[in-house]
Amino acid sequence: MRMKSNFLWGGATAANQFEGAWNEGGKGPSTADMFTGGTHTIPRRITRTLEENTHYPSHEAIDFYHHYKEDIRLFSDMGFKTFRLSIAWSRIFPNGDELKPNEEGLKFYDKVFDELLKYNIEPLVTISHYETPFALTEKYKGWSNRKLIEFYTRYCSVIFNRYKDRVKYWLTFNEINCLTVPFGAYMAGGMILDENENNEEIRFQALHHQFVASAKAVKLGHEINPKFKIGCMIAYMCSYPKTCNPNDVILAQQKDQINNMICSDVQVRGYYPGFAFRYFEDNGIKIKMEKEDEDILKEGCVDFYSFSYYMSNVVSSDKNGEEVSGNVLGGFKNPYLKASDWGWQIDPKGLRWTLNHIYDRYQIPVMVVENGLGAVDKLDSDGSINDDYRIDYLRDHIKEMEEAVKDGVELMGYTMWGCIDLVSASTGEMKKRYGFIYVDKDNEGNGSLKRIPKKSFKWYKKVIESNGEDLN
């Protein structure tokens, strides 16, 4: 099935995973810049000060900062209609709480957006993508502090006004629901919590602050340019019940509610759902809300719903079973599915289910802004990279996306994650590659940074040219 003529085909990235130049142009350190490298078996570490002889992957990443013209030209060669990127908050406000922005940082994005528009590529900008200024972590304890709403809103005001004629599509927070799970405290909330603190209560308090900040940003953005389209972004955690045991079915529903729907209900509908208050009461969570928050949330509902989808999980009230990993949240092994090199279960039909589930609930435009396969890519002797496994993964997901459109889902676009190889957020690796474009760099930071199109590059170019009709 052909997508609508203005369908936004493209790719997605994040500043902290591909931009590099972590301390150039007046940029301050972000939370990502204090995150060491790791592997699938060795977890990344957070360091409050930089350690000698320690690899910090975000510091150079793939150096888009100095390669942006080359990379954008390659995206244009593929026919991108849109490119999702994030603005590094600490490049605009190095400490996060300054009154005046860093002009050199603003000029960098001037150049990036001008280059994109030269090729008629629509920027899709994530305002905050796991890169809170680290000074806000140290001085204010990150998003646990309500003061960050003010700092974030000031940051939004600056970039909205600066780029109001060049950027139409915005996302307020990347995978905002990451704060519903423990590891999200630092990555999504910029918080380093002590073991004796109520981790869950602080995370949901931080989440509330982000809800208010997001709503203020939406209202402000619409005032600055009524043509802005501002969306939420959810890491969709698709959970199936392991059996038809009613306990499993209820558990799967509760996982969906707490891990997904709390966030999108607040951002799309403008208020907390009843099950959120039930969950807070059952788990002894007390959220401090100001009197004006209820009105702020109602006035700042998003224009569209965007999400990441990589895999599905299985949940069960019976705790016995083989566990597997996933994006943000893991679960039990599904015997009907294959898995990636990193153990993420590959489930294209789950994307169709998810699209229908979201659209049935909210009836606003939907966009898949992350979907892709992390794999070990190898250079053949002739210098080619034959990533047929990635083509198969993407083809199967796009087919199910098209089925969802036939079902009546209003789908705006699709930006494949990591369209150029970048640093893995979860493990800090380069070995876990997603891109259509290979970047010569290894887990230790060695390599020439040379860009090499993979077999999937030409395949995706054909997909875009045919508006999704030619998937062979």
Structural write-up:
With 472 residues, this protein is α/β, with parallel strands linked by helices. It has a single domain, classed as TIM Barrel (Alpha-Beta Barrel). Helix content is 38%, strand content 14%. It contains 14 helices and 16 strands. The strands form five sheets. It has an eight-stranded parallel barrel with strand order 1-2-3-4-5-7-13-14, surrounded by five helices. Strands 6-8 form a two-stranded parallel ribbon. Strand 11 (338-339) and strand 12 (345-346) form a beta hairpin.
Features:
472 residues; TIM Barrel; two-stranded parallel ribbon; 38% helix; 14% strand; globular
Total of domains? 1
CATH topology: TIM Barrel
Largest sheet: 8 strands, parallel, barrel
The structural class is alpha/beta
Structure at a glance:
This protein has 472 residues and is of the alpha/beta class. 38% of the residues lie in helices and 14% in strands. The radius of gyration is 21 Å and the shape is globular.
How would you summarize the topology of this molecule?
Layout: E1 8-12, H1 15-18, H2 64-78, E2 82-86, H3 89-92, H4 103-118, E3 122-128, H5 134-140, H6 147-162, E4 169-173, H7 184-187, H8 199-224, E5 229-235, E6 238-241, H9 246-269, H10 274-282, H11 293-299, E7 304-308, E8 312-315, E9 323-324, E10 331-332, E11 338-339, E12 345-346, H12 348-362, E13 366-370, H13 388-406, E14 411-417, E15 437-439, E16 451-453, H14 455-465
Parallel strand pairs: 1-2, 1-14, 2-3, 3-4, 4-5, 5-7, 6-8, 7-13, 13-14
Antiparallel strand pairs: 9-10, 11-12, 15-16
